[in-house]
Protein 1
Amino acid sequence: MLNQIQPPLLELRGVGKQYQLGEVALDALAGVDLRIERGEFIAVWGPSGSGKSTLCNLLGLLDTPTSGSLAFDGEPTARMSDRRRSDVRNRAIGFVFQSFNLVPVLSALENVMLPLQIGGAPERTARAEAAERLAQVGLAAHMAHRPARLSGGQQQRVAIARALITRPALVVADEPTANLDTENAVMIIELMRRIGRHEGATFVFSTHDERLLGRVDRQLQLRDGRAVSDRQVAPARGVS
Ligand SMILES: Nc1ncnc2c1ncn2[C@@H]1O[C@H](COP(=O)(O)OP(=O)(O)OP(=O)(O)O)[C@@H](O)[C@H]1O
């Protein structure tokens, strides 16, 4: 039976993030109301300085709002201890970064294994699951390569495999295509979309590239720290 009372994956009410720069207070985000459900594929877009990274950091529980409330899976983050917040982050959230952030001395396979090993999984299990993930992103033939031997698009695919290895409910990707050419950017977005759809994971990625917006289900536009438009462009998939 459908569970009608399941809370949204993320719920933001009047969220603000203010930075104090000497005497001056800067509102990087102000009054953001947002509900994100399981299985959504969302682009956060807007010009430089509009608050995309700040929002990604809040959604990924890397940072906390200075006003308003944010709940992850129904649990208000304001009531989470630092320890609890990092537990939730490690268990339920994967990250993809603009500059890939792979460990240069490790192979693609070892990079993808890392989150499982940090979580205490036996090496054999981690190795098998990482191999499966790399195959899923089309890199079965590149598992032994170190990042320097991979193209930017391939490195980002390794990073996606790494973000997914713990089967997170949410993947937050801050400008994942900023260092890629258009062909690779489209490939990365399509890959995230396909995997999100297949596994019911929620993907939120930020971009300033409007050409990518046609490939998402929902477009959240930021300007000067405010959500100025929130468009559902494809039916929400949710998770059955
Ligand atoms: N740690 C910080 N300290 C002070 N101000 C900050 C900090 N982080 C961000 N800001 C400011 O907050 C505003 C929003 O920044 P943010 O990085 O979220 O925007 P963005 O849309 O991601 O920009 P970009 O596309 O250039 O990455 C900007 O004015 C920025 O200068």
Protein 2
Amino acid sequence: MTVLRTPPSPAKEVPRFPPLTLSNPEMVAKHTPCTLHPSILPPELACRLFYAMMDASEDWKRNKWWLFDRLVESPHRTSFYVRRPNEADADAVDVGSEEWQEASHYWYNGRNTEKPCYFPDVLEEACHIVERVVNEEMKKRKRFPLEWAGDASGVWRANVAAANRYEGGKESVGAHADRMTYLGPYPTIASISLGTSRVFRLREVVPSNQKEDRHAQTFNIPLSHNSLLVMHGSTQERFKHWVPPQPTIDVYRPSYPRNPNGCIEPSNCRINITFRFYRPDFHPSTIPRCKCGLPTDLRADMKNRQDGKTDKYWWHCNGAVQNDGKDCGFWRVLDMKAEERGPCLYDKVEEPCTSGCKDAA
Ligand SMILES: O=C(O)CCC(=O)C(=O)O
Ligand SMILES: [Fe+2]
């Protein structure tokens, strides 16, 4: 017997757009929730910071983690710095204190047991400039209800910095969104690049309910020496970012010699420094432990984004990266109220901004 069925309707044609290079600040602001400043520090300071971080990076380590049954190493070196609290500032958090040490170990996937270094003077000098620019930017933007609002002064500041060194074009970092364990939701992350220019890549994670309607586009942002990329709130909730290996790179020629009468040595290294704010309401003592007894990871539920206020985040076991690849399967939804976190901008933001809203991009 032949059964006649109506043929299935052809799948909807959803256009795919090729990767787009965002070569100026206007394009970056149009397509992403980030802002680009091509030249952020006075040139002499940028060069001094490059040399200081190149010297320090001799001691930086490659992160290690378990991928299934294999111990793998990051294809770049990394380090973690904490800022000395400002005595004059009553709100300042001493993330260098013993109670915060766990947060620095977490950067190294629980491996590093040494005390993190305080910002060297040159990093402190750069940080002041970065903070001023970030705060100017933030004033112009629509903010998100879950952002931190506990600072009496209302200004953004950095209390930690993570640094990476990429040597040559082969070194890279894989696609990820930054873990929010100590940053909390909608963090602002300010990223300085020094040395060789590399491409920074961003790609949105399209929510499950929009998958049939649109594809994500890949954006390439060339980050040259002394540029600042500010990843504003929602970047970690909506996008993954990475620095891909690059077959060719332009060697960086510093504008100043290392020593007054020395010669200029070209370099094939890129140094990246991300300034971050570890929130007091995400203090290590408040981070849920999984069944392995380890601090859990906080991640945004990127595929089910909501309205900027009711977005979901999960605490989940981070054991797989540390524990011979074994994960205890623990997870729990973040509940800001029940976990007594905040204060957030909730009450100050009149209308919630949808994660995809244009002003927030
Ligand atoms: O090197 C960069 O620009 C990105 C580094 C990064 O994504 C990270 O450290 O989380
Ligand atoms: Fe990152």
